Every structure is written in C-alpha cells, then in structure tokens.
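in:
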C-alpha cells in the first residue's frame, strides 16, 4: 500500500471516528425519508418504477450504517456504544422492521386509497388486516415474537458471557447466583466491560417488559375488533 493510499485511508478513518454519530443520524434520517418518498411516489403519484429506487436506496443506507460500524470496530478493536446502537438498528431493520414496513405499507395504501378514491389494497392485504382483528391471531403472533426475542436475547448473552468469563463453570456460577445484577463494577459481572454490562441491563429490562406484554394477549385475550 502506497503512502498516499495509507494517508487517504487514515484521513477517512479519522473522519468516521470524529463524526460517527452525525453520519449515523444522517443515514437514519435519509433512510426514513426514502420510505416516505417511496409511499408518495408509489401511491400518490403512481410512479411505481421510480418508487423502487427509494426502496433500494433504503436498503443501501441501512447497509452503509452497518459498514460504518464495522470499519470503526476494525480500526479501534473496541466494541463501543456506537457499534451496539448500529447493530440494534440494523438487526431491527433486517428482522422486525420488515414486518413493520409491511404494516406501514398497508396503512399507506388504505388511507391514500381512500383519499384518492381508489382501492389500493389487494384481497390478501384485506385478509391480513382482518386477521389482525382476531384476538387469537394477535396472541399467537405475540407469542412467536416473544419466543424469537427470548432466543436472540439468550444467544447474545451467551456470547457476551463467553467473552467476559474464563470458563463454563464461571458462567454457571453467575447464572446460579444473580446477586451481581445491579452492581456498579463490571468486573463483578460476567460481562467484559462497563458498556456491555450497562446495555445488557437495559436490554434485560426491555426484554422482561416485552415478554410480559406479549404473553398478556394470551393470558388476557382482547375482544375481537369490529
């Protein structure tokens, strides 16, 4: 690698490290604008071919977020809050974000179609929306999502504990005695550093709330919506 190539790479990494949060926020805002423009072009102006470009742009922007996080990690060798936040956003976009986008897409077609006086929903869309009024369907959907969240949470914690402990015996000891939860010193926990420990505590609280909320639809089923 030539001197000028190394210099250019160094300047690029310095820029990424200095403005990482600004870059991430810009990419995130741009990605949401792409979704908005997709809906406007596709359903308001009926420019279907042009709207595809904004969905592709959305995917590219999400990929760029992940790339920025990866490049900074390769440069620093440290998992920081930035990498974790980027990972959460990218993981959401690649998993639950797809389902939420489909809901948003149907919502736009329903309301924009009413505004234009045309039917933009397909028979399949109408069937799905009718299903979403069924308490049994809602309860089943939340049970599945809670189990997926449980698996992801458990696997993530196992990976973090592997980095933060020296042996399986140590992990088992931490699992049997949870008195370390809430301590301020990360060295007394199975996590490798303060950042991962703090974020795991927050994630744990969110997980418990989400799990209870999801199963409430099974334990206390709602009345069917008309």
């Amino acid at each position: 690698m030539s001197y000028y190539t190394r210099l250019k790479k160094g300047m690029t990494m310095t820029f990424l490290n200095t403005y990482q949060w600004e870059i991430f926020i810009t990419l995130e805002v741009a990605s949401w604008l792409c979704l908005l423009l997709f809906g406007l072009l596709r359903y308001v102006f009926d420019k279907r071919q042009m709207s595809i470009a904004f969905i592709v742009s959305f995917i590219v922007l999400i990929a760029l977020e992940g790339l920025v996080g990866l490049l900074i990690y390769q440069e620093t060798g440290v998992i920081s809050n930035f990498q974790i936040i980027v990972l959460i956003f990218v993981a959401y976009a690649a998993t639950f974000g797809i389902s939420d986008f489909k809901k948003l897409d149907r919502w736009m077609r329903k309301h924009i179609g009413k505004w234009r006086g045309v039917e933009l929903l397909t028979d399949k869309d109408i069937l799905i929306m009718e299903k979403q009024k069924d308490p049994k369907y809602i309860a089943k959907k939340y049970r599945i999502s809670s189990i997926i969240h449980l698996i992801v949470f458990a696997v993530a914690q196992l990976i973090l504990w592997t980095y933060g402990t020296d042996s399986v015996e140590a992990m088992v000891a931490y699992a049997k005695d949870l008195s370390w939860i809430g301590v301020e010193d990360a060295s007394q926990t199975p996590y490798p550093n303060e950042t991962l420990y703090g974020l795991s505590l927050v994630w744990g609280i969110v997980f418990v709330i989400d799990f209870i909320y999801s199963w409430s639809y099974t334990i206390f089923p709602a009345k069917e919506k008309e």
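note: Residues 135-164 form the longest helix (30 residues).
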